[in-house]
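Support request, please re-run this one:
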Amino acid sequence: YVHDISEEAQTLSSIKELIKAFELRKSEKVSKMLSAAVFVGVVDNTLMMMQYKTGLYLVDYTELSRELFYQLMLRTFGKCRRLS
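Re-run finished. Output below.
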């Protein structure tokens, strides 16, 4: 049996504060770079190489993934369906 969790969860002050804290520390430059970068290849078990314009960058993809899923969790909190 599946229940929809109310969108009221997005109005919780704790979630709003976490989103606000993220917004204050985000970098437009990094966001732009990541959205336009091209994956070059895996370097080892934590690093990958990306190209942005003429530069090559080593990226810790475990940290990048952690940040991505944290942001997704904040943005979709309360919009998931609960199984019971």
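The helical segments are 13-25, 28-36, 61-76. Confidence is low (pLDDT under 50) at residues 1-5.
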